[in-house]
TrEMBL record:
The gene is bamD. Transmembrane segments: none annotated. SUPFAM superfamilies: TPR-like. GO terms for cellular component: cell outer membrane. Residues 266-283 have a biased composition (Low complexity). Keywords: Cell outer membrane, Lipoprotein, Membrane, Palmitate, Signal. Residues 44-248 form the Outer membrane lipoprotein BamD-like domain. This is Outer membrane protein assembly factor BamD. The lineage of its organism: Bacteria, Pseudomonadati, Pseudomonadota, Gammaproteobacteria, Nevskiales.
Amino acid sequence: MNYRIMAAAVLLIGLSACKSNPDKLPPGNPFKPDELGLREQKLQAAALYKSAREALDSSDFGTAAKRYETLATKFPFTDYAIQGQMEKVYAEYRAYQPDEALTDAEHFLRDYPRHPRADYVQYLKGLINFDRDRGLEASLGFSTDKRDVTNLRRSFDDFSTLVQKYPKSVYVGDARQRMIALRNQIARHEETIVDYYIRRGAWIAAAKRAEQIVAQYPGAPVIIESLAQLERAYQELGLKDQADDARRLRQAYELAEKNNKDQKAEAPAAPQLAAAPAVLATP
């Protein structure tokens, strides 16, 4: 009996002690962060980020991307990991890994839509699609107008999103210039399709495609040629009034182009297209 009373007393004392300090946690409780452990993790994350950034600055883009991936895996919630995710997109872009870069860019914009440098990642998306089909022929100045323009359209949409969502971004000016270049290149591609239809006597298809160019790409350099093709297609189809309208519109474009050339001859040379930006600043 005495043993039972003593055991009950010990139990009550233990329960009383727990009630008197309910916030006290057992040693090594995983839900209470260890300040020393956090500091050690931050130091390790900083060292890994520095290593990745050094590889990036040395143009060792493949190594940099792998180190940024390790950083994100080991220390996913640190500022270094978030910064590393942005720089990883750039590293993959420079390492000619467009699919990986686009996937990581989309993940970043989805996870951090209000990040102060989200505009940079959106701009990178446009650059990746802008450059991904530029091969040896383009670098040597050969025509690539007959190539598929799917990625060029995506690039245009990426830059358009940048301009609409981040109108005050420092990248908007360059994005607008690239959108003009993309519009002109896509229009040239469409013009080659019209030419294909004309050479085969497919006048209805040629007229419809030429109408789309005039409606969708006003101001593009190929507009005058497209209007001439449209005029011919209408003539072949016996649509005299429509052919006359196309001719008058072509003449108006030719006059406007002549006036623009005269003005440009008197104006100073336009600045060259801005180069792709370097990596972001370190955190």
